[in-house]
Each structure stands twice: as C-alpha cells, then as structure tokens.
Write a structure and sequence with these properties.
With about 280 residues, the chain is mainly beta. The protein has one helix and twelve strands, in the order H-E-E-E-E-E-E-E-E-E-E-E-E.
Length: about 280
C-alpha cells in the first residue's frame, strides 16, 4: 500500500512539472517579437525602416507615425510659374464706367534646389523673378452730374528679383511615400523697380521707385508624388514678417524714401503657390 502511494505521488510530481514547463514555453512565445514584423524598404542599397523613430516627450502616445517621404541624400529640383493677362476695349459697365480700354499682363517664375540632409528634412535655395505691365488708355467714370471724370494715358511697369534660403520638414502620411505634408520656413531678400507714368494737370508725370525688401515666411503645404520621381505641391502663406524700403523720384526730382514693416498672421490668398519638383 505504501509503495502504491509513493508511485502516485511521484506520478503527480512528474505531471505537474510537465505542465509548468509547457506554461513557461507558451509565455516565452507570446513575448517574442518576430524580426520581420517591422516593415522595411531599400533606399540606395541600404535597408531602412519606413517609419522614422521619434521620442515621445508628451504624456500620451497618440499613435501618429511619420513615414519616410523623401529619404536622406536626395536632391530636389522644383519650379513654380504663373502667368496672367487681361485686355479690354471699349467696355462699359452699367452707366458708371465707360470706354474702358486696358491691357495688362503679369508673370513670374520661381526655380528652386534642395538637398535632403536627413530623412524628411531638407534645406535649399530658391529664386523669384516677376514682371508686370499695365496700360490704361482711357477710362471714364460718371456717377452723376457733379461727380464725373476721365483718366487716360496711364502706364505702370514693375519687375523684381529675390533670393531665399529655406528649411522644409515633411511628414509622410502613408507607408508607400506618395502623400505628405510639409512646413517651410524661408528667409528672402530682394530688390526691384517700378515706373508709373500718367497725365497730371495736363502735364506728363514720370515716377520711378527703387524697392529693397526682406521677409521671413512660414508656409505649410501638401505634396503628392504623381510619378516615382516627380511630385506636385501646393503651399499657402499663413505667417510672415516683412520689411520694405522705397526710394522715389518724379521727373528726376528726389521725393525721399519710405520704410514700412509689419507681420502677417492670416491666410494670404495672394500667396498660394503651385509647382512641380523632381527628386533624384
């Protein structure tokens, strides 16, 4: 009888040890992270993670990922251009504007070059040349018998050139690197000139202005790769600091200078840029 009890106790001990060992093995498998569970891509012959590692300095992990949009070591060449033209002849608006003859055109071109010194971060230079011409041959304004006048032989011409250095930070929105958003900060300096000719007291007047200006601009935007190496981008001017100096002369007589400065904290509808960029 005693031998039978000893055999039963020994059998229970063996069974208990086997179950414990099995349980420990299951726990190890649950805690094990497969090596290939992190998605990777090949960039310039090197295997890299598609998600940029970032430290979480806040209290909460919001589950936001920054996918690689433009890898380190890439060069980007972009261009933004615009053109507009308006021409009218003998236009009449109600009974107020009569014989409206006007010709005008405005165009600009903005090439840029950038280098990606880190994943999704680039620095570069961009240039801006713009030119505008406006000729008003005749315009008659007639509100009533006591308020009516006409304007004729007015012309305006302006051109400007500026150069800027910028820093751009991208945020990739999908693991395939097709869609992304960015924020751009640029510091620009430029100069330009304008000429305003008109008739005043039956005498021709010619005013020339030399402009020197600088600005610090913050422009967020959206970028989409429409091909493997070609992207389309749109940026919006939302904040900026500006400084401008004007030196003016009329008929060769110095009329002094004017300095203006200010800050813009609102969405600028006249500062929307559309362009293409080639990344190689």
């Amino acid at each position: 009888m005693e031998k039978a009890i000893k055999y039963i106790i020994l059998l229970l001990a063996v069974l208990t040890g086997s179950v414990a060992a099995s349980g420990q093995t299951i726990v190890r498998k649950k805690n094990r992270v497969p090596v290939d569970s992190v998605e990777k891509v090949i960039v310039q012959g090197d295997t890299v993670d598609i998600i940029i590692p970032q430290r979480n300095f806040g209290r909460f992990d919001r589950g936001l990922f920054n996918y690689i949009f433009i890898p380190k070591g890439k060069w980007g060449f972009g261009i933004t251009a615009s053109y507009g033209e308006l021409q009218t002849e003998d236009i009449q608006v109600l009974s107020i504007l009569k014989d409206f003859d006007f010709k005008g055109k405005l165009y600009s071109i903005k090439p840029s070059v950038a280098y990606t010194f880190a994943n999704n971060q680039s620095v570069g230079m961009k240039f801006d040349y713009s030119r505008g011409i406006a000729d008003l041959a005749h315009l008659g304004v007639d509100f009533d018998e006591d308020l009516n006048f006409s304007i004729r032989d007015v012309s305006y011409y302006q051109q400007s050139f500026s150069v800027a250095s910028f820093y751009r930070a991208y945020v990739g929105l999908d693991p395939h690197g097709r869609f992304g958003i960015f924020n751009e900060v640029d510091l620009s300096f430029g100069s330009g000139s304008s000429r305003f000719k008109r008739i005043y007291n039956e005498q021709p007047k010619d005013t020339r202005t030399i402009v020197t200006q600088g600005s610090l601009n913050f422009s967020p935007g959206v970028c989409v790769f429409i091909q493997d190496y070609v992207s389309f981008q749109v940026s919006f001017g939302v904040f900026g600091l500006k400084w401008r100096k004007e030196d003016q002369t009329t008929d060769g007589v110095d009329e002094g200078s004017r300095v203006t400065s200010g800050a813009n904290f609102r969405f600028n509808i006249f500062n929307i840029n559309f362009g293409l960029m080639v990344v190689i």
